[in-house]
Amino acid sequence: MRSNTAGRSAAYTLTTVMAVVFMLPLVWAVVSSVSPSPGTAQTDGFGFGNYTTMFRYGLGFPSYLKNSLVVSIGATAVTILIAATGGYAFARFRFRGKNALFVLVLSVMMIPYAALLIPLLVWMKDIHLQNSLIGVALVLTLFQVPFSIFMMRNSFATIPRELEEAAYIDGCNSFQAFYRIMLPAVRPGIVTVGLFTYLAAWNDFMVSLYLLSSEKAPLPLALVNMRQQTMGVIDYGSTTAGVVVLTLPAIVLFLALQRYYIRGFTSGAVKG
């Protein structure tokens, strides 16, 4: 009994220390964004001058926010659609070459991220999706689909086949059984895939840098462009304000969906 108590105390202490360590950079960014500093919009006393500068930069914060939302929501929606249908097919159907096709899908994860950007840039230009938010969303979907299909395949594999058979007996066809029975049963896996994809697209910088102009920049790219002010001097105040604004939506979304996210990883999403 005493050893169990000591073990729990050590675990709580370790997790608390880790939480503090991970939170320190964010706390530092919040404090720095409102603190007075020479060369920034907030030179006298604490205030929100840096946030005002950040919101007024370029085309304005709402424009860059809209670009980020289009890219993130678009990539998330397409990834969930492909991963759910593809994962269900790999988990339930038998067809020639299924294992080889599954390995081929997973092999995309083995290709270095940067190695595909130049070919994708040429391809997007050929299909007239260069400098397009839709094009960026599709490219990000390409990088997220293999892992997402892997997770959804394993999530569907943990659902008893008797549920589908009962649906067929009740008169459902294959699509109705998939939509009404299977999708609700793997909701944690779907939320996990969606949250993972959304956060990756929300924070993406490299693809937007290659494919988009500054007028269509999402928040991460606009934030980098904002850093360089007159004579190349970095505006650290506005930069930290942008980091805080960029981080908060992701934190709120994760906290709201974390119970599904954890269940998605622990209830079959990572089982072979």
What's the short story on this structure?
Helices cover about 75% and strands about 0% of the residues. It has about 270 residues and is mostly helical.
List strands and helices in order, with pairings.
Layout (H helix, E strand, L loop, with lengths): L1 H33 L14 H8 L4 H32 L5 H10 L9 H10 L6 H25 L3 H9 L4 H12 L1 H16 L3 H6 L7 H9 L8 H31 L6
Question: How would you describe what is shown here?
Answer:
There is one protein chain. The protein is mainly alpha-helical and 272 residues long. The chain has one domain (53-266): MetI-like (MetI-like fold), CATH 1.10.3720. Helix content is 74%, strand content 0%. Helix 3 (61-92) runs antiparallel to helix 9 (187-202), helix 7 (161-169) crosses helix 8 (174-185) and helix 9 packs antiparallel against helix 12.
Strand count, sense and barrel status of the largest sheet are: none
Span between termini: 36 Å
User: How many β-strand stretches?
Assistant: 0
Order of helices and strands: HHHHHHHHHHHH
- Specify the structural class: mainly alpha
Task: Please tell me what the overall shape is.
Answer: globular
CATH architecture: Orthogonal Bundle
Helix content: over 70%
